[in-house]
Amino acid sequence: MEHDRGLFFDRSPLMHRRNLLKLLAGAGVVTLAGCTSSKQTASSGTVSTAGAADTSGSSSSGTVTDTTATEASCSPIPEETAGPFPGNGSNGPNALSESGIVRRDIRSSFGSAAGIAKGAPATVRLTLLGAGNGCTPLSGAAVHLWHCDREGRYSLYSEGVAGENYLRGVQESDATGVVTFVSIFPGCYSGRWPHIHFEVYASLDDATSGGEQIATSQIALPADACNAVFASAGYEQSIPNLGRTSLETDSVFADDGGVHELAAVTGSVEKGYAIALTVPVSRRS
To answer: Which of 90, 132, 171, 211 is the most exposed place for a label (fewest CB within 10 A)?
Structure first.
């Protein structure tokens, strides 16, 4: 089974930045990769698409919150590798150029492919904010999001699903900076903590016509939600894989334990999960 290629691929482009952060931390300077506000609001919003997450379920870890900006500054989310399976044309298949990639529900393949990803229903809600611009909502930007399936495979690349393109999609942010994807809870494969990849583009046109990303990062999923999902049918292979890693040892999230990329998750296996993260980004000239 193919998967992210571990320490060399996931960390080497980031070493200079990681070392700088460690020096700052050693000097007693703490830089938050999120809004500097202490105000918290509960993740909410039920997606009406059939089979999508019902966020009325209880949190898997008590009260789970999603940060909302109230102060005038915030720092960009940490930059991470897109990994070996982005499907953006950088190392093989380019799903971004295909008709049908702009969509909210990413559970099924599109175009000539017909596969449907099975798993616990989930919605992924990202709130884009303008870092260094008063944490104002970033409307009219675009998010390219992708993740592995229940079995830990990536469409377009992995054996058995190379002909599929499910669990990949692009959305334009609304007036409040929000994008929402209807998906499934991803599985855990050997060598990585459960996660979701995403890229942010300045516009929908940039995302679908080869423009430059303004941010590339990953969403870390909390352990309690992972444990609950992986105990359900179809996720059996995720249990031993999860047991062999942690946020503190993951090749991407290790430096800060994923604290700045850890999603707020509410819901249940039966009702579905809502995965939410606030994403401050800086526009590049």
So the answer is: 90
CB neighbour list of residue 199: distance below 8 Å, 6 or more residues apart: 82, 86, 88, 143, 144, 207, 213, 215, 216
The Cα 161–Cα 170 span in angstroms is: 20
Give the lowest-confidence range in 12-21, 93-102, 165-174, 179-188: 12-21
Q: What is the pLDDT of residue 195?
A: 98
Q: Which tops the pLDDT comparison, 2 or 125? A: 125
End-to-end CA distance of the chain: 40
Band of the pLDDT at 257, cuts 50, 70, 90? confident
Tell me the HSE value of 43 on the side-chain side, using a 13 A CA sphere. 33
Q: How far is CA 158 from the centre of its chain?
A: 19
Nearest Cα to 219, choosing from 260, 177, 182, 256?
260
Which CATH number, 3.40.50.620, 2.60.40.10, 2.60.130.10, 2.30.30.210, labels domain 7-281?
A: 2.60.130.10
Nearest Cα residue to 150 out of 46, 253, 230: 230
What is the value of pTM for the model shown?
0.79
Residue 57: predicted pLDDT: 40
Q: What is the SS3 assignment for 277? A: strand
Q: Calculate ∠ Cα 164-150-231, nearest 5°.
A: 170
